[in-house]
Amino acid sequence: MNMLEIYNKDISYSYEEGKSLLDILQDSGEIIESPCGGKGYCGKCKVQIIKGKLEKPTEEELKYLSKKDLEKNIRLGCFVYPKGYTCVKFLNKEEKNYKALSDGYIPDIELNPIIYKEVITWEKPTLKNNFSYEETLEKSIGEELYHNDTEILKALANVDNEEKVTLLYYEDKLIGIESGDTKDELYGAAVDIGTTTVVVSLIDLNTGKEIGTETSINPQKEYGLDVLSRIDFVKRKDNGLYLLQKAIVECINFLLENLCNKNGIDIQNVYEIAVGANATMMHLLLGIGTNTIGKSPYATIFSKEKNLWAKSIGLKISSFGRLYCLPGVSSFIGADIVAGAVVANLKDTKDNVFFIDIGTNGEMLLSKGGKLVSCSCAAGPALEGANISCGMRAAEGAIEGIQFNEDGVELQVIGDAEPIGICGSGILEAIAELHKKEIIKKSGRLKRKEDLEKEKRHILAEHLMEEGKKRKVILYKNGDEMISITQEDIRQVQLAKGAISSGFYALLDFMDMGMEDLDSIVIAGQFGRHLKTGSLTGVGIIPENLKDKINYIGNSSKTGAMICLLSKDARKEMEDIAKDIEYFELSTKEGYEKLFTKCLTFN
Questions:
Q1: How many domains is the chain partitioned into structurally?
Q2: Angle at CA of residue 227, ends 523 and 290, nearest 5°
Q3: pLDDT (tens digit, 9 = 90+) per residue, 143-188?
Q4: Could you tell me which residue ranges the 2Fe-2S ferredoxin-type domain spans (predicted)?
Q5: DSSP letter (8 states) at residue 250
Q6: 462 lies in the same domain as 569
């Protein structure tokens, strides 16, 4: 009998022979990290085989398994095809105290939310005036009820004994009714769905105050680290779209419920959720197929704003609750970037401003005195700690800062804990430092150990390890455990740097501008705010001569969602700007490949 037992959980699943262990686990609803989406090139879906007959590891699988892994019978889920009874143990370490940026610059806005409440005293039906409660209420307020489901009618059935009721309006249309006076209980949630992280803020719509914020790793990462791997997951798996939508909806519900519980607020008094996200994340949230985004001409199913009932996708707020999805531009420039354009005031400025969301997708906007043009570059996940040999999320134990001095290496670790890996900001700072100390050449090549010794830089030479032709820099060592940066890690960062830098120069050229014409560079996003200016300029993502023009705006996607909750005018501005942003496809630029190659060097 084909049976898979999860040792850690004392759970068993029957399975169909011929499927990989990773597929069996995912089909059963188990969460296992698979950043590459099961394609066999990330080496992250490790499990320990407790019992079962398996084929020997292939040469390809052995690339990702250490001698210690093999001794413990640890295998990669995507390479293993079990038969009969198999028992496995999960190895995933819990990432504690995940560090994500949840705040950012908030522009001044006039408080004018699209959703509001009014309290009235109404005349109920009598024997003499024996109209329905619906008709009686309509006569009391002088307008017809707006509803396309039965929720408001259900609410009417529960207020038949109430003289005073609270009316809930959305876009000046009555959408709900509540017993008594609940005017002071009016909340919304601003959500940023990033490819890597999810941020939810609870907002008081009466005062405009941000009550609290919760953050989480995007649970979809277990099915694919970047948008392309998730699009591929949806394509390959019959229930892939369902799994990804379920994961993100449950995540939002969980974070919002935590926020409400911490602040003594009934989640049924949350009436709207506004969401900023890239195009793929927005499609997955709504359960819309992503197949068209992943193939030429890479068109989205939708890009305009969406105004829906929150319950239609399983969001557990008020039964009258609404879901507002901010507008995007294209498959590569989503609502998160449109939100950034509004928050940074890129449309109304007379300055020349370059806006960059440094992350997996590398979206950027250039405002030339208010004329907006955008592009997106496939920076990849290396800058966020993925596809790096010792990379990890920005959680407790992650190295986030590094300095090389005469005594060796000085580490800054999140939570002041024992180092267990290195996150994106740490990787970038390490490479900037290694380049500054001339341990990494302009080409990205690590120097040889003997060259450092000839230069009498013996302490730094001690941190350089050579295994045949392979080289790596040891940042931390404790017994057999070590954290290092390999030559391949440096190449991954070079590719990300090349993508972002080439986009930067290509947009400037497209608008007939030079670096000297820029008044400001705005760095946005969850990841970007944690990057030091010295790291950005040290590896050449931003030219050194522009370092004094760099400004950090924080999580502008969440901020954009927040101001959409609080202001009708901001919502209208968001929708208008989305129509004004021109998209420039980098691959159509003559000589782009040559530009990209040039931008790979560290300078």
A1: 4
A2: 125
A3: 877 666 788 888 888 887 788 999 999 998 899 999 999 999 999 9
A4: 2-94
A5: H
A6: no
